Amino acid sequence: QEIPTPPALLYYRGIVDPQEILGITPTVGIVGTRYPTEYGRRWTRKISSTLAKSGFTIVSGLAMGIDTEAHQACLEAGGRTIAVFGNGVDTVYPKENKTLAEKVIKQGLVVSEYPAGTKPNSKHFPQRNRIIAGLSRAVLVMEAPQRSGALITADMANEFCRDVYVLPARLDDEKSHGCLQLINHGAEVIPITMDKLLEMLGAIPPLDIDVVEPPENLSLFEDKKRDYIPDLEPMLAQVFQHISSEAIPVDLVVQKTGLSPGDVSSSLLQLELLGLVTQLPGMRYQKN
Fold first, then answer.
1. Distances in Å between the alpha carbon of 215 and those of 223, 233, 239?
2. With contact defined as beta carbons under 8 Å apart, do 8 and 113 qualify?
3. Are 110 and 101 in contact (CB under 8 A)?
4. CB neighbour class for 257 (10 Å; exposed up to 12, middle 13-18, buried from 19)
5. What is the pTM of this model?
6. What structural domains and CATH numbers belong to the chain?
7. Residue 167 and residue 190 in contact, taking contact as beta carbons nearer than 8 Å
8. 72, 99 Cβ separation under 8 angstroms
9. pLDDT at 1
10. Which of the pair, 211 or 50, is modelled with greater confidence?
């Protein structure tokens, strides 16, 4: 919800990592042309692999070309990657990446704001790009001609106050004219050494995260964590207060909170992604 136009819902398949949602695990978007040169492919794989081994989550769009190289290199390095779809999460586009999508689901996450059954549509992809930018702490544009969709992602990242980095290339290389344009507008140039890139992205030194435990309740007869409520937005906190360790149906949550069914469903999904509640069969929820 850090972007001006956040999706109302995010559908997903795969493994949710609460540390990504809370901003503890850094995420970096890698985007570019669907028709990269060998130079672009090589540097994309090198950078994606290095970032994955350094604890970054790689975000991209599962398109052919740069996206594919970024996802594959991350997975091969044992890292975690997020693929943002411009269609339902039950449909893989392009179909050539079906096997890659299955690997992403096992080792990361695929997300979409479009419900299952939504087919690929060219109008969806610019909207998809804003989610890539929003999920990323920084966006790296590897190769992009002047009309590349990667430039939309870069523009949105800049609008959302994310850092934008660009792979430098030859002045006469048309596949990089978009990158040169971004550099002219103030984007950072990706450094030659990976140590310098990691330093620029904030991976050196590593983040020192203090885990704050809930305050203890000194009563001898009450569950000492029962009254603990995490720091949540008002609507999420309101819904969370009505969830207990006993499963409760979603319609009862609607009744107790007085919120609309849509607001309750959206809040429950966000709480589930944060690892605070679990959905059970029959649209019932319980506190973790």
1. 12, 20, 21
2. yes
3. yes
4. middle
5. 0.70
6. 11-200 (3.40.50.450), 234-287 (1.10.10.10)
7. yes
8. no
9. 56
10. 50
Which CA distances in Å does 183 have to 27, 42, 145, 167, 186?
22, 21, 13, 9, 5
Matching residue, tokens 């002045």: 171
Residue 249's pLDDT is 85
Whole-angstrom distance between the N-terminal and C-terminal Cα of the chain?
A: 23
The per-residue pLDDT for range 136-168, each reduced to its tens digit, is 999 999 999 888 889 999 999 988 889 999 999
Judge whether 45 and 73 are in contact, CB under 8 Å.
yes
**Residue whose structure tokens are 């999904």:** 269
The count of other CB atoms within 10 Å of the CB of residue 263 is: 16
Q: Which two tokens stand for residue 194?
A: 């990976």
